[in-house]
Design goal:
CATH topology of the largest domain: Rossmann fold
Structural class: alpha/beta
Largest sheet: 6 strands, mixed
Distance between the termini: 91 Å
Order of helices and strands: HEHEHEHEEHEHEHEHEEHEH
Shape: globular
CATH architecture of the largest domain: 3-Layer(aba) Sandwich
Number of domains: 2
Strand content: 15-25%
């Protein structure tokens, strides 16, 4: 009271408010979540780019401090995970296909750290959560476009690895194409590589030589071949229409923001636990969408796709999930 007597009441209030503002700013800065990501591929690669984009968006909003490592070899992945955990990163994001055991061992050793990993397997309590790009719904819709647009009734499909995460998208695409065109057939090939554009291009050329007039571009390189031959293509995960003018009919897009934002919020609130975040890639959560080039696709086909999309959104149509390896028609 003696101190307050030395200054006016108004000045005292101003001082308190000023200190409060500074304190709030400091607390907000201190409460930024420390997030790190580990990628086995360049951040420009389509699948990885979606995670990177979502984390950058969270950083731009001031919610997180974001670090990442790209092109990390499988045999170096565990070391990088441990280093980030030792640095005090609160959430570590990445993809652990092919190194599940090592990644889960690290998570077990650092149970105060939250891990959110692209994985073919289940979450493990208390801190190892999983996600995947469940964009089978827009993939089905893109298949309707392809089936309706194929004049030769033959579609070529080039994938990376025949793992469930890829298989389900390709199978959904094929189901959609068959809905629009029961006579359509497929040629399917896997590169056994996540990034080999020359090999993908070579495979696409072989399919076009066999009569395929629509190409499903699960990997980079396929659309390049389509451009050279004047064949149409369907995109996957990212929208590459601007890079391949007059070529990409439609693309099934993955939006990782819903998944990342949910995980960040849970960690910030102290509610993060082992869970499967796959549902946040569904269209209902804004995790997946379809983009169509209406200049290339007839209005009646667009209308059919939009009608089916509305049914999916309203819960009136469910796209089948088939993780089995897709095969070529004989």
């Amino acid at each position: 009271m003696k101190f307050l007597g030395l200054i006016t009441r108004r000045a005292a209030i101003a001082a308190v408010l000023s200190v409060g503002a500074l304190t709030s700013t400091s607390v907000a800065a201190a409460e930024k979540l420390k997030v790190a990501a580990i990628y086995t591929l360049p951040v420009e690669q389509q699948w990885v780019s979606r995670i990177h984009k979502a984390l950058n968006a969270a950083q731009d909003r001031g919610e997180i401090e974001y670090l990442y490592s790209e092109n990390v070899a499988n045999n170096d992945y565990e070391r990088v995970m441990r280093e980030y955990a030792e640095q005090g990163q609160q959430l570590i994001v990445g993809e652990v296909f092919g190194l599940e055991r090592a990644a889960r061992k690290v998570a077990k050793d650092y149970q105060e750290t939250a891990f959110l990993m692209g994985s073919s397997f289940t979450p493990v309590a208390p801190n190892f959560s999983v996600f995947d790009n469940w964009i089978h719904e827009p993939s089905y819709l893109s298949g309707i476009v392809a089936g309706a647009m194929s004049e030769n009734n033959l579609i070529g499909m080039v994938g990376g690895y025949a793992i469930p995460e890829v298989n389900r998208l390709m199978n959904a695409f094929m189901d959609g194409a068959r809905e629009a065109n029961p006579d359509v057939k497929f040629m399917v090939n896997f590169l056994d590589s996540w990034y080999d554009p020359p090999k993908a291009k070579e495979s696409a050329f072989a399919m076009m030589d066999a009569g395929a007039d629509i190409m499903y571009a699960e990997r980079f390189g396929v659309s390049d071949a389509a451009v050279e031959r004047g064949v149409k293509a369907i995109g996957n995960v990212i929208d590459t229409a601007a890079d391949y003018p007059d070529t990409i009919l439609a693309s099934a897009l993955w939006h990782m923001e819903a998944t990342i934002d949910k995980a960040v919020a849970n960690v910030a609130l102290g509610r993060f636990e082992a869970a499967d975040y796959g549902q946040y890639s569904f269209m209902a959560y804004g995790g997946g969408s379809l983009v169509i080039d209406s200049a290339l696709v007839p209005a009646d086909v667009v209308a059919k796709v939009k009608a089916r999309e509305a049914e999916i959104q309203d819960g009136l149509f469910r796209v089948n999930v088939n993780d089995a390896r897709p095969v070529s028609d004989k």
